[in-house]
Amino acid sequence: MARGAYPPADAQHPLLRMNPHECVPFMDELFTTGQEARLEALPSPRLMNTHMHHSLLPASVTDYPDYKIVFICREPKDMLVSLWHFLKGVRSFTFVDLFDAACEGRAPNGPIWDHLIGYWNASKTSPDKILFLRYEEMLIDPVGHVRKLARFIGQPFSQADEAAGIPADIVKLCSFDKLKGLGVNKAGSFDGKVFNFSHESFFRKGVAEDWVNNMTSEMAQRFDTIIEDKLRGSGLTFK
């Protein structure tokens, strides 16, 4: 989105100096009372992130004719493990507590399957507006997915960009290991209003299938069965 103003190979790139949440603000906060000035100050086109369910997105977003949404879908078991490691720093609960709550549809952001199927169905209805990406596939082919993302947002790479290695430069800049190793992401915190999260807490492993280190085979089977049942008929699977 900003590679014209901030070339990815620039030693002073914002992502090298600031936590990603400072570069891409949390939409849920920007749409609260008193934050209108911050929202209006964002350069156009505005770039924001959210964990909000598709059905709860503000009409000012979904009614805007040129809006684009990129939804990152992670394998549900890995997502649950990642969520636990992230939240346990500010809440006192076990993984079993979170696991049982998720199985009953009481995860912190509501039923996991509703969140997934909401964006999945919307991406099928409006593929020009909503891009549904799978985290595991992005890990396998990050450069290919950067190209797909660039096309989707209307910023495709030119032949000159490709010759200059811009897609690979973006992947290198945004790689998990690169961001995790930066001093700015090892110190400081993000004010989540209810809780403060250390910048370091946003970077743990960033790998696929880490759930095997946290779930028993019985737990995994139970969760897979629930997810499969809830998503049946949608076309979205994790097999």
UniProtKB/TrEMBL annotation:
Which EC numbers does the record give? 2.8.2.-
| Species name | Triticum aestivum
The organism that produces this protein has a lineage beginning with: Eukaryota, Viridiplantae, Streptophyta, Embryophyta, Tracheophyta
The UniProt entry, under InterPro entries, shows: P-loop_NTPase, Sulfotransferase_dom
Outline the extent of the Sulfotransferase domain: 9-235
**One cellular component (GO) term of this entry:** cytoplasm
Single Gene Ontology BP term? sulfation
Q: Where are the transmembrane segments?
A: none
Q: Name one GO molecular function term.
A: sulfotransferase activity
Query: Which keywords label this protein?
Result: Transferase
Q: Which family is this protein grouped under?
A: Belongs to the sulfotransferase 1 family.
Note whether Transferase occurs among the keywords: yes
Q: What is the name of the protein in this document?
A: Sulfotransferase
PANTHER family listed in its UniProt record = SULFOTRANSFERASE SULT
